[in-house]
Amino acid sequence: ILSCIALFASGQKTEKLLLVTQYSYIQLPTDPLPDDYKTYKLKVSGTYVNYNKLIADNFKLHGFEETDGDTYDLLVEIHDFPFKLVPARQDYTKKEKVNDKEQTVRYFYYSYDITHQQSVKFTDRSGKQLFYEKFDLKKYGRTKHRKDLNQINKDLEEEKQKLRKSNRLDGVKKISEVLNSKYGFPKMTKTFKAYRVKAKKHNYDDFNEAFETVKNAGSIVKENENETNQFFESTKSAVETWETVLEESDLMNKKARVNKKITCAAYYNIGQVYLLSKQYDKALEAYSEILVID
After folding, report:
1. Looking at the predicted structure, is the pLDDT value of residue 219 above 90?
2. Could you tell me the pTM of the whole model?
């Protein structure tokens, strides 16, 4: 819904501004485990020991304590399959001016295909398999275009070294996201935004004063994500102001003070306040008004 809503403001009177630089919250699991599960053990296997360590260093099951011991509640087994990059040298010619004379210049580069996979097996302390998935990390790419054939060979070797590392990091990132979404308690950060109005022919002091009220109250949830009641009490007057603005809404008149764009901005801001206040039904109701209008 929010991606659809964002379309209404492009190039118009409204300006999207940051209200809260960052606020944190704990994301709850979609498939919660028993409360007495507290620890996990991580095992990483693969051909290259150094890359196995890299993978291990970049995995964490949030909300659980990692242990190296023989007693644990959960076992995470990640396997890193062989990384293979297959290059194909390419070339082409183009006309260029060299010393004020047009010449045909040949360029070289490598295109390449990468085949690479990682798998994760997740079991509980009884040995029961809770989750298994193999992630396909294949990629396609190419090196820089060069006139020097030797240089593209160097480029290819540098690219290989970078991709061997980055591909493994991409894989463990995917694994971490999936397992933490299903079973973990990751700490997430989110940016809170709302709209203020650039005054042109009309006066929008009421709209923008409400904006400032919400902006100032943003520090409440930034410092403590659970202070949603205090945040809403501090921003309730802003919501009431935007609701009053909506009483002037004239969707068919582009020159109206509260035209279609301003109407959508007001509904969006109301929805954002309710969202941050964890009043999700009211937030959805406000956002839905924009979809009906747009």
Report:
1. no
2. 0.70
In what order do the strands lie in the sheet containing 65-66? 65-66, 39-46, 74-80, 117-124, 129-136
CB atoms under 10 Å from CB of 86, counted, come to: 9
DSSP state of 275: H
Which residue in 12, 31, 201, 251 sits closest to 122, CA to CA?
Answer: 31
Q: How confident is the model at residue 188 (pLDDT cuts 50, 70, 90)?
A: confident
In angstroms, the Cα distances linking 201 to 194, 205, 254, 256 are 22, 12, 12, 10
d(CA 257, CA 260): 10
Per residue in 244-288, pLDDT (tens digit) is 999 999 999 989 999 998 999 999 999 999 988 889 899 999 999
Instruction: Report whether 286 contacts 264 (CB < 8 A).
Output: no
